[in-house]
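Aim 2 progress update. The chain analyzed this quarter is reproduced below.
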Amino acid sequence: MEGKELRFGTDLSALWGSWTTQTSNGSVNAMHDSFNPMGGMMLLMDMFVNVTFGGVGVGLIGFFLYLMLAAFVGSLMVGRAPELFGKPLETREMRWISLAMLAQPLVILGLSALTVAMPGAAANSNPGFHGLSQVLYEFTSAFANNGSGFEGLGDDTPWWNLACVVALLIGRFLPMLVPLAVAGWLAAKRTAPAGRGTLPMDSPAFMGLTAGVIVIVNLLGFLPALVLGPIAESVVQGF
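Predicted structure tokens:
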């Protein structure tokens, strides 16, 4: 119960923590730093994915990035030129979509690595596995436009203030500008007629493909950092 209010208990604290990190509203009813390692990892995963509809961050437009990537992969899997709603997805579109999706792990992991590599920059209260989780959470929250934190950090410093601003600016505007640019490029193209090889985007198979793309992309980007942070902490604590 450390870090949780008696009015809510552990169950409602975990539920609210999941909601607030999925929708990026930044509100808390318990200290996220006090969650057990696996609970804290789920909060991180919610912000890594960041595709919940109605989120005050860039949830829906972030989902469009995964949708376009799934359409690209799915079209190739059925042996058809990549397309989205009858519009061809070509090199220019996929280059910018890839950049927008790779920006998240590059920014979060890059800034986290710089922070832990500079003695005293993190100023965290737990220099072990949980300390890495604290740093990772801070930059993830900034990139996802969330506003919550693991705390335990001496984060009112020039480094933290400037680094989090960089993460916030990139995480806020790049996922917004890229889909808008791709939409403009696609609108200028001719629509190809639907045929037998057209990938149906309203099918359960495409829904599963999109979900798989979301999971795989985020695991490939962040699993090593999670292993060094909350997963290692869980192993030490014996789950």
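The chain has seven helices and two strands. The two ends are 17 Å apart (CA to CA). These observations will guide the mutagenesis experiments scheduled for the next reporting period.
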